[in-house]
Write a structure and sequence with these properties.
2 domains, zinc ion binding, globular, alpha/beta, seven-stranded mixed sheet, 14 helices, ADH-like_C, Quinone Oxidoreductase, Chain A, domain 1, disordered N terminus
């Protein structure tokens, strides 16, 4: 990266306690100020001089860790250095709303998910929306001022998965807030324009951010084959279980049973259209739960969408699903699980995996714009970026449904 002027270096170093010479910074380098919210720091790191010059420096929320430390448990407000949108097919975005996902909290608490390990500072966040402030020279479908929703997964190469339309399975895909790739929980962010989708006027920024979890529901229901008249069991009434409920109903499911440990979340599920709610307890016998589901529906569900990753819940899903039906695994739990595989085999219950999503943003936007799906009730808490640690703690404790972070106080409403 080219060196900025000497006076600029002195100006920044007077405010920043760590970080070294600007000339040595690379994309995704980090700085730490004595007070990330002090007026002088805000003025420097959000000034147009920096925004339109060689680097953008701004507040972000990131994890700090090292290779020897498996548990992170450290979320800090700091500063993040990123080149402006100089690449032809990218856009520079001023971020507006970012939802906190369970995976963000898991990286915070454990420092890894499966083989994805946090070994260096990483910006969190992948459920996001923002406004375009600069476009690359090759970008034709977006302009400055457009409000967009961000699809966080961007293929890096035209491999076999890209060619057959299942780019979510590409082993080299870029994905926000999945090591080693940074997320977008920061005031400004650059992203591939092809994976930024313009929002209709009647779709809010918050709804735009919620397209990411909604996409999980769309992909899960597609994989399950939900259609008119389907009977569906959804295990888990967290954010993902609830979006699966919304999508299943929008796709024509006639009856949906949803389960959870929390009566509060089941109340929300009822408000969102669940026909039956089943409160489960730790230690419940899977076969008995399956029988209760059958009694509620009057038949076994043709489709089960498992959103918890809990071994006993997967077992319940297999026992509950009608012969010849489909069980899709959305929730991620332990790497190894004991399940009644022979029961599934002899009854031809298809078990299908779900990994993120692909080709879902246009459908999600259409669902929201048409009013067929309403995700607004899912947002139960809002915090400014300066209170990000409190927001993460709220999510960790399982309070409410979806916690949303805003980049300025004026965006809180």
């Amino acid at each position: 990266m080219d060196t900025l002027g000497y006076q600029s270096i002195l100006q920044v170093r007077d405010t920043i306690s760590e970080g070294g010479i600007i000339a040595g910074w690379r994309k995704a380098d980090y700085l730490f100020s004595e007070d990330a919210t002090c007026p002088d720091t805000l003025r420097i790191f959000e000034s147009k001089d920096y925004l339109w010059n060689r680097v953008v420096v701004f507040h972000c929320l990131f994890l700090s860790t090292c290779e020897k430390r498996q548990s992170v448990k450290s979320v800090s407000i700091g500063h993040y250095v990123l080149p402006p949108a100089s690449v032809q097919d990218e856009v520079l975005l001023q971020m507006h709303s970012v939802g906190i996902c369970g995976s963000d909290v898991h990286y915070w608490q454990h420092g890894r998910i499966a083989d994805f390990v946090v070994t260096k500072p990483m910006v969190l966040g992948h459920e996001a929306s923002g406004r375009v402030v600069k476009v690359g020279s090759a970008v034709k479908h977006l302009k400055v001022g457009d409000r967009v929703a961000i699809e966080p997964g961007v293929p890096r190469e035209m491999d076999e998965f890209f060619k057959n339309g299942r780019y979510n399975l590409s082993p080299t895909i870029f994905f926000c807030a999945t090591p080693p790739d940074d997320g977008n929980l920061c005031r400004y962010y650059t992203h591939s324009a092809n994976f930024c989708y313009k929002l209709p006027d009647n779709v809010t920024f918050e709804e735009g951010a919620l397209i990411e979890p909604l996409s999980v529901g769309i992909h899960a229901c597609r994989r399950a084959g939900v259609t008119l008249g389907s009977t569906v069991l959804i295990c888990g009434a967290g954010p993902i279980g609830l979006v699966c409920l919304l999508v299943a109903k929008a796709m024509g499911a006639s009856k949906v049973v949803i389960t959870d440990l929390s009566s509060e979340r089941l109340t929300m599920a009822k408000e969102l259209g669940a026909d039956f709610q089943l409160t489960v307890k730790r230690g419940d016998v899977p076969q008995q739960l399956a029988k209760t589901v059958e009694d509620m529906l009057g038949t076994q569900p043709q489709i089960t969408i498992e959103c918890t990753g809990v071994e006993s819940s997967i077992q319940t899903g297999i026992y509950a699903t009608h012969a010849g039906g489909v069980l899709v695994l959305v929730g991620l739990g332990n790497e190894m699980a004991t399940i009644p595989l022979i029961n599934a085999a002899v009854r031809e219950v298809d078990i299908r995996g779900v990994f993120r999503y692909c080709n879902t943003w246009p459908m999600a936007i259409a669902m929201l714009a048409s009013g067929k799906v309403n995700v607004k009730p899912l947002v139960t808490h809002r915090f400014p970026l300066e209170q990000a640690v409190q927001a993460f703690e709220t999510t960790r404790q399982g309070l409410g449904i979806k916690v949303m972070l805003k980049y300025h106080q004026k965006m809180m409403k």
